[in-house]
């Protein structure tokens, strides 16, 4: 049971990282210090997709599931609703390149917005 809970926690962490890599630049509107966390995360997400690799969280999660006696992703709410989002069945090399482009495009738009706010002198969170 503990391994399954740990695997679910890794899955949620993975999802959180994906959301942060896509939209974390918006946190820079509040505090510029978020740039130092977000830019490497976005770069990592793009690098994983462009290289055709997998995030180290994926094998960690699968190992924890195996230790918990699970053969796959059947059963719980987390598996049913979140796994297909993070691990799409049709993940091809072409789709990975599209995802890398999506990460880049979203972040260019977000940082364009953030820089515009900074130049206008808009206070953090304002």
Automatic annotation (TrEMBL):
InterPro entries: DUF2784
Keywords: Membrane, Transmembrane, Transmembrane helix
TM annotation in the entry: 9-28, 34-54, 94-114
Signal peptide: none
Key word Membrane present: yes
Name of the protein this chain belongs to: Transmembrane protein
Matching Pfam families: DUF2784
């Amino acid at each position: 049971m503990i391994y399954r809970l740990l695997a679910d926690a890794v899955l949620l962490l993975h999802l959180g990282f994906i959301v942060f890599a896509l939209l974390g630049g918006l946190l820079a509107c509040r505090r510029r210090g978020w740039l130092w966390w977000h830019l490497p995360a976005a770069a990592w997400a793009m690098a994983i997709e462009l290289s055709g690799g997998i995030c180290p969280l994926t094998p960690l999660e699968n190992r924890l599931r195996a230790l918990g006696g699970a053969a796959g992703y059947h059963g719980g709410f987390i598996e049913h609703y979140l796994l297909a989002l993070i691990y799409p069945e049709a993940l091809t090399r072409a789709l990975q390149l599209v995802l890398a482009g999506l990460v880049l495009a979203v972040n260019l738009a977000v940082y364009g917005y953030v820089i515009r706010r900074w130049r206008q002198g808009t206070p953090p969170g304002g």
